[in-house]
Amino acid sequence: MPTPNSPTGSRDEGYMTDSYMPRIVPCLARSDPFRNTQTNLGQLAKSNSAPTEDETRQIEDLVSECDAAAAALEAKETSIKTQIAWLQEQLARVASSHGHIASMRTKATTLQSAVRRLPSEVLEQVFIYYVQSSDAMWSRNRAGMKLCQVCSRWRQVARACPFLWTELQLFMKHRPENVDAMTRWFFSASRGLPLTLMLERLSGPPSTSFRPINMFVIPAFQPWRTIKHLSIHALCIMEIAHEFRRLGVVAEDIETLCIRLSSADGGEDFQPTPMPNLRKAVLTMVERGSRIQYLPLIRFYDDFPWAQLTHFSTRTAKVSPEDMITVLSCCPNLQDATFVLYEHALWVEPEPIDLPNLQCFKLVFTDGASTNVLSYLSLPALTTFTVATHNNGWVKWDSDALQSFRLPSLEHLTFCGVKISLDDFMSFVHPSRKLTTLILENTFHSSKLMERLYMPDIYQLDAPTVPLPVLAHLSIYQRLARIKKVIPHWSFRKVAQMINSRTRAYEGVDGVAALQSFTFTPTRSSVNSAFGERAARMARRFRDVGFNMRVERAYGEEGYYLSMDEDWR
Fold it and tell me: 486: exposed, middle or buried (C-beta count within 10 Å: 0-12, 13-18, 19+)?
């Protein structure tokens, strides 16, 4: 064992004969120090007589020897602790060296990684995907900067990719020198591509938050004249619109406009500059947690270029059914629309509206909203329809309105967070003879739904009576354990029968197609323990014949909040 005198670990020659080691220590290791005097001292301890001079001297000698032995043991204990501390220090050095070597080995291995051998064109596409998938608002500007800090090659590829520098977000508390340098860099790096500009207000009233940006940001727009996507926070809309009219820039090139109002915004009507190229608009409210806010669309009725729009969305801001009808009547060229409906039915019966160009429609119902507004809409070209609720709220299903609501061209249907009866559900899907994709996400319906989707035997097959005759893709996601204290229970037998009946070959029957894929994600509480095992076996069996079936296990969450994120802003 190494000692303080021998750090190499060799045994010290004076280990057993140190000068401070009393002669009593070896004796203690071999015999009891009381053994020689046990008889005399034992008898003395049992008697009441005082010890003699010889016995007193003998006791004092024994006490002295015990004290010397204790001191020697304490010294030895200190020596051993010193040795342990030295060994621990050496062990820490070895561990540190081991970690350093492992880090060097990892760095050396990365030099041979596949990502370093990627062609610049492929690496550029990876960068673009990274920037597009960046959810944090504050990181939009920094995404490209982060890529430039990895290595020299990544910096070279990132700087040569104009797409990474086409989306600029300016906060109204940026310092003038930062904004000027940032805007000039993005303008040069984008190389003439259409720019997306987002003006954000962090906090504070207009008088304290808008003036700085009014002084130095707006003049910086003058050399651009290429901004096609503009996103503006509320409270400063009027003044920014005034500056755009005065400078004569940006507004005439805008194709996408996003305006986010605030509850503290004034009551003035919006008066934009002429935007002849505007095609996509988002009018919404600044989100405050899970609380959904009312959007006063009446402030945009007069001067907003509704007739030019092909895409419109209120994101997560709710509007009244009357406002939705008014906006739809002013947008004859609308192709994509998203509305969140307020919690009441129509108060005044409007005129029917025909939207011949609308192809994608997302309708979100807040808690207690009614579906009677659907009876006034004619959507002959609609191919994609999404019905959802905010935070799994309940919907007032109007059966009469659903009977008159027809979607002859519907191909993709999604229900999200909806509790719906089987009859109301079939009123949506049965009129369509072209529906190929059905998605049920957090939607309560009984297991009888599977029975309604059974395909009869081929010799009994009558195409006009088959619900969803060309259904090719069916997905059921039950991510919540319960919806308003309602738990759907699934029967594996009915699921298997539905799949088996729809995976047959129907080449000889006109207007009927087989199911190609089925995705089922139940919660733990909605299926029994044997469901997953049997479903997995069936999935493997179907995969062998080319049918794509996926069964996953989901777990309940505390809440569900709708997020409507369109591909366009």
Answer: exposed
* Cβ-based neighbour number of residue 454 at 10 Å: 14
Going by their DSSP bridges, the two strands 280-285 and 311-319 should be labelled as parallel
Q: What are phi and psi of 478, to 5 degrees?
A: -120, 75
Q: What is the pLDDT along the chain (569 residues), one digit of tens a residue?
A: 444 444 444 444 444 444 444 444 444 444 455 555 555 666 777 777 777 888 888 888 888 888 999 999 999 999 999 999 999 999 999 999 998 998 888 888 877 777 777 888 888 888 888 777 655 444 556 677 788 888 888 888 888 888 888 777 766 555 555 666 777 777 778 776 766 766 665 544 444 444 444 433 444 454 444 566 666 665 545 555 555 554 444 556 677 877 777 665 555 556 656 678 888 888 887 665 556 777 877 777 777 888 889 999 988 788 888 889 989 998 999 999 999 888 776 777 888 899 999 999 999 888 778 888 888 899 999 999 999 887 666 788 888 888 888 888 899 999 888 878 888 888 887 777 788 999 888 776 666 777 778 887 777 776 677 778 888 888 887 765 444 444 555 677 777 888 888 887 666 677 788 888 888 777 655 555 566 677 777 777 776 666 777 766 554 433 333 333 333 33
CB 329 within 8 A of CB 300: no
Kindly report the backbone phi and psi dihedral angles of residue 389, in degrees, each rounded to the nearest multiple of 5, phi listed first: -125, 155
CB 484 within 8 A of CB 419: yes
Question: Cα–Cα distance between 447 and 453 in angstroms, integer?
Answer: 11
SS3 per residue for 246-273: HHCCCHHHCCEEEEEECCCCCCCCCCCC
Name every residue whose Cβ is closer than 8 Å to that of residue 86 and which is 6 or more positions away in sequence: 2, 4, 7
* Residue 561: closest CA among 424, 435, 389, 401: 389
